[in-house]
Design brief:
InterPro entries: UspA. Belongs to the universal stress protein A family. This is Universal stress protein UspA. The protein is of the alpha/beta class. The chain has a ten-stranded mixed sheet, with helices on both faces. Strands 3-4 form a two-stranded antiparallel ribbon. It is globular. The protein starts with 14 loop residues before the first strand and ends with a strand.
């Protein structure tokens, strides 16, 4: 990316929102609605009846533990199917209400299968996929669900893992890049869009093994200036995911953007970073 270059303009894809009835899912729906309104994008809600859960209920030895009571009891297939129908209806009403408030058209797709597989089959390269970091069936206290892990690593388009936004004192969009990475432009474009929409400044963190590269920093700053965005560029020596998380927190990040091409994914550190950063995170291909 040079100073003469502008951020690439890409066609507006759909906003896909994964609904499962969990609290974070409903919060993610509101975020997805705001994004779709800003982009004037088509909205598709997705509700998946988890086939593995339904199959498990068919085995007599399978038991479930109540979230609040902690009491173990046999899984009841009829009760689970009734709960799925109730959650699907709740998803439909919530989707209609959120989009009607913003004057947006919407559609809801109901599927039965493995959640990640069904969503991947529906998603296109230009789509933004929005979901809560943990669904209703997730392990209590978990910060990253199994479906989120699969979609982050395999989705063709951008994935927004929604979490409760941090305190107001955190008011900066942070983009994490490799200084020699060819996929930087997409992550930078997403970061710029977030900074503009949220009226927040932008920090670009460049992971590097070779020290500062002022030319790259100048090019990025010139590009952001041309977009009317207040930004700064910092160089970050290659370090552990935990160390990177500390730097991001020190920046006062309200949201994080990183590319799947970031070396943290190759180093198996992405899970650690995503778990430690309990804030909205967008992962680009």
């Amino acid at each position: 990316m040079t100073a003469e270059q502008q951020l690439p303009v890409e066609p507006v894809g759909r906003v896909l929102i994964l609904l499962d009835g969990s609290r974070l899912s409903l919060a993610a729906l509101e975020a997805a609605a705001d994004i779709a309104h800003a982009r004037k994008a088509e909205v598709l809600g997705v509700f998946v009846e988890e086939v593995n859960l339904l199959r498990s209920a068919g085995y007599g030895f399978t038991r479930e533990v109540g979230r609040s009571s902690g009491v173990s009891r046999p899984m009841d297939l009829a009760a689970i199917e009734a709960r799925m129908r109730s959650l699907a209806e709740q998803a439909r009403r919530s989707l209609e209400r959120a989009m009607a408030q913003r004057g947006l058209a919407q559609a809801l797709t109901l599927c039965r299968g493995r959640v990640a597989d069904e969503v991947l089959n529906l998603a296109r390269p230009g789509d933004l996929l929005v979901l809560g970091r943990v669904g209703w069936s997730g392990i209590p206290g978990s910060r990253l669900g199994s479906t989120a892990r699969v979609l982050v690593s395999q989705a063709l388009g951008d994935v927004l893992l929604w979490a409760d936004p941090p305190m107001r004192s955190r008011n900066r969009i942070v983009v994490l890049l490799n200084h020699d990475q060819g996929a930087n432009h997409r992550a930078v474009r997403v970061g710029a869009e977030l900074a503009r929409r949220n009226r927040q400044p932008l920090t670009i963190l460049l992971r590097t093994e070779t020290g500062r590269d002022e030319r790259i920093a100048e090019d990025l700053l010139a590009c952001m200036e041309s977009e009317g965005i207040t930004a700064r560029v910092s160089f970050l020596p290659m370090a552990s995911a935990g160390a990177v998380a500390r730097v991001i927190r020190e920046e006062g990040a309200s949201q994080l953007v990183l590319s799947r091409q970031c070396s943290l994914f190759r180093e198996q550190g992405a899970d650690t970073l995503l778990i430690e950063m309990n804030l909205p995170v967008t992962v680009t291909p």
